[in-house]
Write a structure and sequence with these properties.
3 helices
Length: about 160
């Protein structure tokens, strides 16, 4: 445990890591796209994806839907990190630069607010040079009484 980290922080981090492992076990979409969930922490996640030839649209740039999928994946892992089953209620995406074959994209998601069952999260998608490719804002909805995993040590808080 880091000197400034409390026992509650350490527990929340362990829960977020367990959520990642539980979700990854059945996350066929992310696996098929080569998305790696590089980091998770309470209310945050970092997902990465290399742009492949089969991800290019008719203009030779990465399809916006696949960039959105990467951002939505980071969003999913961030908003489920507290072990409450949470789904997207809506997203808005702004594409600000193209991504090309071979680019390594990273989507960093951070929770902005969580009130009762509704949350707001921001995702920034960048390429390997640190240039912003897309911005996404997601609204989440927690499903009442449902956990990603059930364990006596990680009860709903």
């Amino acid at each position: 445990m880091h000197p400034s980290e409390t026992a509650d922080d350490a527990t929340a981090t362990r829960v977020a890591l367990r959520v990642r492992e539980t979700m990854l076990a059945d996350d066929h979409a992310s696996r098929s796209l080569g998305i790696d969930i590089a980091e998770v922490a309470p209310g945050r996640a970092l997902a990465r994806m290399r742009v492949r030839r089969d991800m290019l649209n008719g203009f030779g740039i990465c399809h916006g839907g696949l960039i959105t999928t990467l951002a939505d994946t980071a969003f999913a892992y961030a908003c489920n990190s507290a072990n409450h089953v949470t789904v997207a209620a809506g997203v808005s995406v702004d594409f600000v630069a193209p991504a090309h074959e071979g680019d390594e994209l990273s989507a960093a998601c951070e929770q902005r607010t969580q009130q009762a069952r509704t949350g707001v999260y921001d995702v920034v998608v960048r390429n390997q040079h640190g240039h912003t490719v897309a911005l996404m804002r997601g609204r989440s909805h927690r499903l009442k009484g449902r956990q990603v995993f059930v364990d006596g040590d990680a009860a709903l808080g």
